[in-house]
Amino acid sequence: MRRFFLIFIPYIWLLALFLVPFLIVFKISLSDIALAIPPYVPVIEWSDGWAGFKNFLSQLDLENFVWLTQDDLYWKAYLSSLKIAAVSTVLTLMVGYPIAYSMAQAPNEWRPTLMMLVILPFWTSFLIRVYSWMGILGKEGFLNQFLLWTGMISEPLQIMNTPTAVYIGIVYTYLPFMILPIYSALEKLDASLLEAAEDLGCSRLSAFWLVTIPLSKNGIIAGSFLVFIPALGEFVIPSLLGGSGTLMIGKVLWEEFFSNRDWPVASAVAVVLLLLLIIPIILFQKNEQKSREMDQ
Amino acid sequence: MTQTVFAPWEDPGEKPLIQFKNVTKRFGSFTAIDNLTQDIYEREFFALLGPSGCGKTTMMRMLAGFEEVTEGQILLAGQDMARVPPNERAVNMMFQSYALFPHLSVWENIAFGLKRKKMPKSELDARVDEMLRLTRLERFARRKPHQISGGQRQRVALARSLARAPKLLLLDEPLGALDKKLRQDTQFELMDIQEKTGTTFVIVTHDQEESMTVASRVAVMDEGQIIQVATPDKIYEEPASLYVADFIGDVNIIEGIATKSGEDGYKINWSEGKEPFQAKTPRTLSEGQKAYIAIRPEKIAVSQDKPDSALNSIKGKIVDIAYLGNMSTYHVEIPGGLTIKAQTANTRRLSRRSFTWEDEVWLSWTLTAGSVLER
């Protein structure tokens, strides 16, 4: 009985806060836009009973999903989001791996401090941190002023409102999600394995490729998903740093919802985005399951 | 039929494979190895024996190339190893934790070192198969290290370190993680493999029984220095010092004052007013010098009556009996408060044992049973 409750509580949580909202969004995506409150039709007429419900069902259609395939704005936005998410995941990995590696190499007494420093940015509001990047990357920003002062450039660089600014923003924001799983994989790595590899004829570098990288593979995969999934639907960073030039599906969704007040199309965009995200999540879980089976 | 005894260390013409020349190793202010000079010969099974922290592991890690020598030289086949990194030494090591690669199968683990040699595929396959056969692991080639038992993992580690056919194989507490029964079987297997491959083995261990079983020579270490190097029987029968006598096996130590008696014998006056014990020794002691007799428990006979012929005999009372199955150790208190351990083989069943607690018995031993030591 106790076990039943322990399982039951998280399921209730998922049901109430994930499945039910999703079904509502899905229902709206099958509706039509209307000048009303709420701004879509049909709504269920509870007073008409069963007939009202049947009437409601008959008015639902897949029109909005068809619309998404007709206007090339949407698939371009999805594609561009996938590209930005993929590129920034790779960039985050390239920045995060060396950091995680040096943390794992650091003396034991230093590790909690380093860990703290990685988590520290979370103590400040995410929005404030993205805004402050505007101050750094802008035409009159700190970065340009510094580069002009050193004489490396003679004209200020246009970084703000370009994809570069979006990449910088995403890499900065999601870096801890990449570092932590890789660090936890590297920390468990037995140093004698590297000595064994060297003893068996590896140089330091090939020992790294043949032993360290394969043994931190699970950390790399976990970190990549933790960056890729939120980056794909990211809205704040591209709209604050990317300007009008950067097309991302999160931004399109926001505009459909708030500017156009087209809730049905916005819902359809959200449903497709969710499906796009579920695929990598399923892949991720498969990988987790495989590594768990391997450990048995 | 005469059989030549394997003893290259007694042949002055033999060139040693490894030479430690005045090697000192310091970690900060701590001296791990203190001005150590030692030769190890080809095909030897050389054991470094000592308590933890005595420097035996440091010596091994310097041979493997994981630690640099602070002063002095280590030569391998006449070549100075100072600037040679671990991956370029004809030395392989079997790690205490085995350090098997968890992401690779048994087969891939063994092939790991061979692949680094850029060996042709067919030759590599043949060599891995040979190693699998040698260590009886053929059936487990496709398994991952976590899917096999501790004893099998130990054999994979051995096969992996032997695969590159090193001139020298280092074994760091190779049997430490195995239970006693398996350890004994594996000791003989190690000796067998060492003989078959003709590789020089250097083994680090804190288990004196293990080193005695496997090694051709044992080096007893303490505080960064080698106290004595000799064959296992010499170490046991003729320890050079009290430290060695005490570290290897069980021993009774009797302290006294030496006086010359006869050609090469001494009387050791161990207690005022008691008959001194007599012992023969090749050592020369000065008159009235402090000396010790170290006698192994199994060399002391226990009897009901005073033996007629024995030169050393003393009466005592049994205070404790340790029954070990195949033998029993009697703790006998002799006048003067000293407790002497004497061991007898249990050739009879327990119920017919002749002595029990509180019995008065005679202990006796011969002139050459004990070693006379100065320190």
TrEMBL record, chain A:
Would I find Membrane among this entry's keywords? yes
GO terms classed as biological process = transmembrane transport
Location (main, coarse):
membrane
Record's SUPFAM superfamilies? Answer: MetI-like
Please give the GO cellular component terms listed in this UniProt entry: plasma membrane
Determine if Transmembrane is one of this entry's keywords: yes
Query: Where is it located?
Result: Cell membrane
Domain ABC transmembrane type-1 as annotated: residue spans: 78-284
Family indicated by similarity: Belongs to the binding-protein-dependent transport system permease family. CysTW subfamily.
Mind telling me which residue stretches traverse the membrane in this protein?
Answer: 12-37, 77-101, 113-134, 165-186, 207-232, 263-284
- Protein's name in the database: Putrescine transport system permease protein PotH
Residue ranges the record marks as coiled coil? none
Q: Which domain of life is it from?
A: Bacteria
Entries under PROSITE patterns matching the protein: ABC_TM1
What InterPro entries does its record include?
Answer: MetI-like, MetI-like_sf
Gene name, Swiss-Prot/TrEMBL? potH_1
* Record keywords, A-Z: Cell membrane, Membrane, Transmembrane, Transmembrane helix, Transport
Automatic annotation (TrEMBL), chain B:
Q: Which GO terms describe its molecular function?
A: ABC-type polyamine transporter activity; ATP binding; ATP hydrolysis activity
Q: Which InterPro entries match?
A: AAA+_ATPase, ABC_SmlMolc_Importer, ABC_transporter-like_ATP-bd, ABC_transporter-like_CS, Mo/tungstate-bd_C_term_dom, P-loop_NTPase, PotA-like, Transp-assoc_OB_typ2
Tell me the subunit arrangement.
Answer: The complex is composed of two ATP-binding proteins (PotA), two transmembrane proteins (PotB and PotC) and a solute-binding protein (PotD).
Asked if the record carries the keyword Repeat, the reply is no
Q: Name one GO cellular component term.
A: ATP-binding cassette (ABC) transporter complex
The function of this protein is:
Part of the ABC transporter complex PotABCD involved in spermidine/putrescine import. Responsible for energy coupling to the transport system.
Keywords noted in UniProt: ATP-binding, Cell inner membrane, Cell membrane, Hydrolase, Membrane, Nucleotide-binding, Translocase, Transport
Instruction: Determine if Methyltransferase is one of this entry's keywords.
Output: no
Family membership noted in the UniProt record: Belongs to the ABC transporter superfamily. Spermidine/putrescine importer (TC 3.A.1.11.1) family.
Taxonomic superkingdom: Bacteria
* Annotated GO biological process: putrescine transport
Q: What NCBIfam families does this protein map onto? A: potA
Annotated ABC transporter domain ranges read 18-248
Q: What class of enzyme is it?
A: translocase
Query: What's the catalysed reaction?
Result: ATP + H2O + polyamine-[polyamine-binding protein]Side 1 = ADP + phosphate + polyamineSide 2 + [polyamine-binding protein]Side 1
Q: Tell me what this protein is called.
A: Spermidine/putrescine import ATP-binding protein PotA
What's its EC? 7.6.2.11
Gene field = potA_2
Query: Gene3D superfamilies given for it?
Result: 2.40.50.100, P-loop containing nucleotide triphosphate hydrolases (3.40.50.300)
